[in-house]
Amino acid sequence: MDVAQNAPETVILAxxxxxxxxxxxxxxxxAPVGQTPVIRASANRDNTHFYGALNxxxxxxxxxxxxxxxxxxxxxFLQQVLSAYPEVPILLLWDRATWxxxxxxxxxxxxxxxxxxxxxxxxxxxxxxxxxxxxxxRTAVSHNHTFAKLPELAQEFEAHLTKxxxxxxxxxxxxxxxxxxxxx
Length: 184
Known about the structure:
By secondary structure, this protein is an alpha/beta fold. It has one domain: Nucleotidyltransferase, domain 5 (2-Layer Sandwich), CATH 3.30.420. The chain contains seven helices and five strands. Strands 3-2-1-4-5 form a five-stranded mixed beta sheet, with helices on both faces. It is elongated, with a radius of gyration of 18 Å.
């Protein structure tokens, strides 16, 4: 909350990555009696990855699809975040993944002092609000899906992420809404 008091214009984001597989994950659904839903199962493990950053105040999502999760792709995503929020300070909360470190990340940070990174404690995904976004998107799009091709599934997944607002109470829970309104 020090950030909110010292720089109330700061955008606070929670970042994480997720993998999306063509192979459908199955979950319980309701169906008329005698009409068991049929889920297509892919024999291969085709997948793609998504970088996502949740704006904790607005629920808006910034997304990048990638075939790889590397420091270079992470740096590219940081550039995308900077472009999405020009001219304002950004506090990005993320985990300690190996692809969140290295020269490519340091280079972006040195060139953009308005971007500050803060790591979640090790082994604590439950603290990251972005995890709830992945769960909601998987429930809405990729569980029990009938897509035959990965690009179609990935496009639908990305569209859901960018069109949906994902409410988050983390900031409110810590009094951010009271601090933020005081400075408006």
